[in-house]
Amino acid sequence: MKRIVLSMTALALVLSGSVNANAQKKGGFYSQPYKTRNSGSFNKSTSLLSIGIGVPDNYGNYKVSLPPVYVKYEHGITDEIGIGLLGGLGMSNYKSGGNRYNYLETTIGALGYYHFNKLIPVSKLDVYLGAGIGLNIRDDNYSNYNNTSVIGLGKAGARYYFNPKFSVYAEAGYDNLSVLNAGITLRF
What we know:
elongated; mainly beta; Porin; 59% strand; single chain
């Protein structure tokens, strides 16, 4: 508990320093016209490559053998809107009698993202929402069941930049593999 309180305090101090630095520029962040305002966390020339791991969903007697692994790419088309691709893969197994069966699930999709860089004056923090459509592919060798279905995708996330090219991220949302995932992001 003590570590959590210290971590939260340190994060609050870092974020307040970033807010104060932006607030002192040119009469304050919010005094700038919305169209020209930008915290610097995202813009139309931004390209992002993220690699992460998810918290797996457990399905009854299935045991996770590979937690969901993600690869994502996003490119800015305006200073607050980006489009991207997502790919994820997870694997579970099931034991019945003396037999072991595998369950493989893959999700691929396209998403549109809205970044709150014109509303949140913290240059090292990128808060975003994403929505899109994808394919979920399931393969189960227990019943020789193969199924592909169209699914909706929804994400809410945040990135914290340690430098202009490297950040860590955490996301919550729906993609049929995991409700939470986290990892690293490279900006180029």
